[in-house]
# Entry
Amino acid sequence: MQTQRITDRVATSEPRFVEYPKPDPDAPNVLVVVLDDIGFAQLGCFGAGFETPNIDRLAAGGLRYNRFHVTAVCSATRAALLTGRNHHAVGMGVTEEAALGFPGYTGRIPPTAATLARTLRDHGYNTMAVGKWHLTPQVEYSAAGPFDRWPLGMGFERYYGFLGAETNQWAPELVRDNTPIDPPRTPEEGYHLTEDLVDQAIRMIQDQQQAESRKPFFCYLATGAAHAPHQVPTEWIEPYVGQFDDGWEAWRQRAYDKQVAEGVVPPGTTLTERPEWVPAWDDLSADERRLFARYMEVFAGFVTHTDHHLGRLFDHLEERGLADDTLVMILSDNGASAEGGPTGTVNEAAGWLELNEDVETALAQIDTIGGPDANNHYPWGWAWAGNAPLRLWKRYAWLGGVRTPLVVRWGDRLAEPGGVRQQFCHAVDLYATVLEAAGVEAPASVDGIPQQPVDGASMLPSFRDPGAAEHRTQQYFEMMGSRGIYHDGWKAVTDHVANQFGERAHLGGSHDFDTDRWSLFRLADDFSEADDVAAEHPDVVRRLEGLWWAEAGRNNVLPLFEFPGSMAHMHPGAYPLAESAVYRPGGSPVPVPQLPSQVGGFVLTAHVDVPDGGASGILAALGDRHGGWAFYLLDGRPVATFALLDGARRVAAADPVPVGPHVVELRYLPGRDARAVIAVDGVEVAEGPVPGLVFFPNVSTAAGGLLVGRDRGIAVSADYRPPFPFTGTLDRVELRSGAPDARPESATAIRVAVASD
# Structure
């Protein structure tokens, strides 16, 4: 660079100005909408019998891809989408809850794989992310960071959403940019997360465009819907009452018929048969049918509600004249979820631990399903139906896990709008597709760091030509031991059954990699993976298995994920868990991974000063009524409530804490005779049994945390309504671990970690 001339006078000095990156004049705005746990048949334009008119409207003016594939769980798909690399190649072999010390499973996207957001930002785009992130390790959720794997550290300039696998739709754990915040309204005031996320996306786009309409934007909107808990206002459920009374076989058949009629599924496709582990609807009791239909009514309302709010965003683009210049992609991160188990559950976190309540217990709560008092997930019969005409579901390399809807709209840049494209494609391809549309080349280096090869290839030729040649002839699949590979129209997949959700007690297949059997399908002729031709083509099976091992080596798939053995190698955070910590009122929630371990019990000590007339309110609270604990004064009396996965346990003192300074203590003592003890100034004032598991997966996966001096969202106990602030003086609380070296690596705790996707 030539030396800049600077003298003591402006007139004889040479000015130079910062050169801002400018995108191609024809570069489109980009909107990527990632839905959660939506199966192949769970959008109206892909066969669903429930309403998604706004997404259908986009499909009518755009394209549907019926051979679009993902990784089978959310973190992995999101990493592949945003980096253009295979999920193991960027350390996202499973979900963030199971980040391990192996290259393909670290849960940490490396700087050698700069994201789509970073690349577009470097070429003059504004970048914004809204909604579910799930690409930050749990041990990095806190206000201590590090923040380089939060959205703003990964190339996004704005962020509003939640960091974890899921969150309560009525009372989410929210972050704005790098700061935890409270939801703007309460459940009682009508708050719902989906509405809020769309509001935020509209506001970000509006602000950006009003500031500089000549600059394109990339908006990444990832809804919490339709991941469990399935929660939605009652008025969205009511239109579906009675629509699922004839059961999952009948619904699946109707979806298939619609798919064939609309060309989403080729004529002659086999509707794969109901597996034996999904009960026949007619064999269920009347109570089971009533309950199971209600779970699906809620799910359908949840999806339609989501579509309604997405419609507000689509309308905003049209009203501002942005629609034709915006490349929109709508997809799901994996197939429908079977994590509700055979019978569904009103508390999905309990379901992860195979603690599903019996039908009678769930029926007693049927009117709460979908509302703030339930944490529900439907039975796996609906997941099977929702992936019609495919087999299996989320977490498996079978098509029911890895083939999901993809809708694309881009003004007049698409040939034959309303059509169905049949090219084989994968989430890794979206990165290259967007870059080509924007006129941007994938960078060779970012911040001086050489970039690893991009695995995706652009789908843009198929936008313009329905008969375009397939850009992808090979793609491996692997998720939690389930393996598959596609090559030149063939697909091979193993019969491995993961050791999760009790599925090995129901699903047929192999429980050991050494005994896994490879099935073979000619997908060019067998759209639904129905006809296993492995016996007729053993040479093809051997060849594809060899290709899979080659891809496994190239992409860091090994060692294969095994449950529970892999969980002994969890990736640690920057610091080991503290034995004890002191917290004061007024801060944001402290996430569970940063708290002293509670697995081996704990002692919570609160230093209070009770005024004349007594005091009430929260001393400390963690979680909500679906899983957590709270320690508080109620009419002056110390009370502890543990919301366990199978019910609440409450211990209360008989007398109020006297006026003046005191030390109020809660001790949780685990074991065969687990109990809680409350003490005031060292004197025990209450004791009671606390049988059950004090481990709160729904808190950790939602990035929830400990609050001091108040609560928020949904209360742990019916004794109070948040925020229930402490009315005396609360100086501090100390949380001390009963077993500082304990990690959540018991069999049940591990089951949670690998299930929260």
